[in-house]
Amino acid sequence: MQMKGKAGKLVRAAVAVLGVGIAAPIALAGSAQALTYVGSDAGVEGRCHNSTYYLCLYYNSTRTTAWWGTQTSVSDLGTRTFFAGTGTGSGTRVKTNAAAVACDAGSSSICYIFSLPGYTGGRDWLYGGSSGRLQETYNDDASVKISWG
Amino acid sequence: MPTPYRRLVPALLVLGLMTGCSAVAAVPAPSPAPPADVVTDDLELPINAYRSTAWETGELILARALLIDDCLTRSGPRHGAAPDQAGSERQTRNRIADFGFHGNKRRYGVTSAEDARQYGYHLPTSVNGAEAAQPEKAPPGQAACAAEAGKTLALESGDAELARGIASASFSESLGDPRLGKVVAAWSGCMKAKGVEQKDPLTAVSAFDLNGALTQREIATATADVACKRQTGVVETWREVETEYQNTRIAEHHDELRTILDEHTQLMKRVAAVIAEH
């Protein structure tokens, strides 16, 4: 079972690959700080592709329930909610609740998802035209950036 | 380029030239170094040597986009502009300006006094106009062509899991180190003396809307933030703690990391060959 949120993120980051324990975190915004490619060549999910949005986030990792999209970079997802009527998770705050992403842009563009507001913290990224399950920012998404190619 | 990488690349290039690469050109060019004016200064951590630089990632994005364009235009008219080296380089420079040559520029929050003075907590390219939006949806057929490009370049995950794990875990580990706790407390005290209540250098940015206009208050706060980091040694201590951790892990995983370097070098040779063909 996947641990949710920042606590799970910290544990996963420390034990993944290395198999180490971690000390109790101090009172800092604990987030992993790596840059991770999360895209696949499965293409962009239909609702996002048929919309006017270029970056879409999803409530679940299969991208079949609630979603939210943007045409521009967003430095703090705090007030955004998954679109109404789009399935389980609709109306839920997007920040720290996204499991997957689609980047509906040309192949020279890339999309970033950050674990902290202000484009800081751990980063997932993917090419335009691809989708993927979030890793560094799984249930830990706080800001997004579209880098146009 | 960090020393271990610099030492290994020539030998691996020779090996690569001897073995060749069947997927692309027979005589691949070496991975191009960035032009001299590209800002390569960034937070130096040992694991940087085993991960792609932003420049290399830019080359990879270009090579992949060129292959996708080849594929798409085989079956129909081109949607949008063809990928080009000048445009790709411009975007890579933008990404370096925002996130650093090794992607570490904002690892401990804003740490450049010059950036704080000019851009506050904003990304430089969002203020200086360098990052112009060029909205373009993925054209039909891009996914299939992307898969084909991935096979040609023999792309795997785009990064090595072990190196990524070390870069991530060293940061998580550092949060529990008392040396960091001490300097962060000192930083918070320094900020308070400058009239800013902040406990965490990573979330100081949260008080500002980076989608909005840059304000004098944001510049003043970011400038105080950087000055306090320097005064209290936050960056140096944090880097020292992470460096200790990473060096230990690198020594433990020496052989695997050597393989990662080897595979990375081969990938960049394929990337260079694709770009040279276009």
Overview of this protein structure:
The complex is a heterodimer of chains A (149) and B (278). By secondary structure, chain A is mainly β. In chain A, 10% of the residues lie in helices and 26% in strands. In chain A, the strands form two sheets. A four-stranded mixed beta sheet of chain A has the order 1-6-5-8, with no helix packed on it. A four-stranded antiparallel beta sheet of chain A has the order 3-2-4-7, with no helix packed on it. The radius of gyration of chain A is 15 Å and the shape is globular. The termini of chain A are far apart. In chain A, 62% of the residues are buried. By secondary structure, chain B is mainly alpha-helical. Chain B has one domain (3-276). Chain B has helices spanning 3-19, 54-74, 85-99, 113-119, 124-127, 142-153, 161-174, 178-193, 216-232, 234-252, 254-277. The longest helix of chain B is centred in the last third of the chain and has 24 residues, at 254-277. Chain B is globular. The two termini of chain B are 27 Å apart. At the A-B interface, α1, β1, β6 and β8 of A face α2, α3, α6, α7 and α8 of B.
Give the tags.
heterodimer; A: 149 residues; mainly beta; four-stranded mixed beta sheet; four-stranded antiparallel beta sheet; disordered N terminus; B: mainly alpha; 11 helices
Mean residue pLDDT of chain A: 83
Parts with pLDDT < 50 across at least 5 consecutive residues of chain B: 1-30
Number of helices of chain A: 2
Give the terminus-to-terminus CA distance of chain B.
27 Å
Structural class of chain A: mainly beta
Main β-sheet of chain A, in a few words? 4 strands, mixed
Number of separate strands of chain A: 8
Envelope shape of chain B: globular
Strand content of chain B: under 5%
Query: What is the subunit arrangement here?
Result: heterodimer
Strand and helix order of chain B: HHHHHHHHHHH
